[in-house]
Structures are given as structure tokens and as C-alpha cells.
Design brief:
32% of the residues lie in helices and 20% in strands. The chain is built from 4 helices and 3 strands. A hairpin with a 4-residue loop joins strand 2 and strand 3.
Amino acid sequence: MKYTGKKYLPLKEYLKALNKNKVILSHKKIESILNKHLPKSAYKYKEFWGNNRANNQGADHSNSWLEIGWEVEKIDLENEVIHFKAKE
């Protein structure tokens, strides 16, 4: 089942529009894209950024990148940046 809730749809559209296959986004940049704050768990737990499909509204953030063929390549919570890449 494909599902990207409204909250993470801007991130999906941002990644989809990129003309490259890798990007590093800071937490602040992601919040700017979403026009909302990320949950505290995004700052504290690597698991938040896991490449796992979710089928409910409470955990649909990963679907925003997985549905368009992207994945999280590296998580750097100390520097608050996430490395995304397009799957090959």
C-alpha cells in the first residue's frame, strides 16, 4: 500500500524534483521544506530515519522517500543532517 500523508508530501515532491541522485539535507532544511517542525524523535533516534514502509498516518515519513525510489543512505544526528540517495 502506498501512502504519504500530507505532512511529508512536500519532502516527497522536493526529492522527486531534484536533478541529482544524492542530497544531504539538514533537519532545519527538511523543516523548511515541510513548513513544520520535525518530531523530537527525528533529532534523537536513527530509527526515525529508517527505510521502512509504514501503512498508517502516524509513521508515514519514510514513505515520502521510498515511494519515489529514494532511501536514507546515512544518518548523522550529531550534525543534524540526513544523506538521501536515489536507489539504482
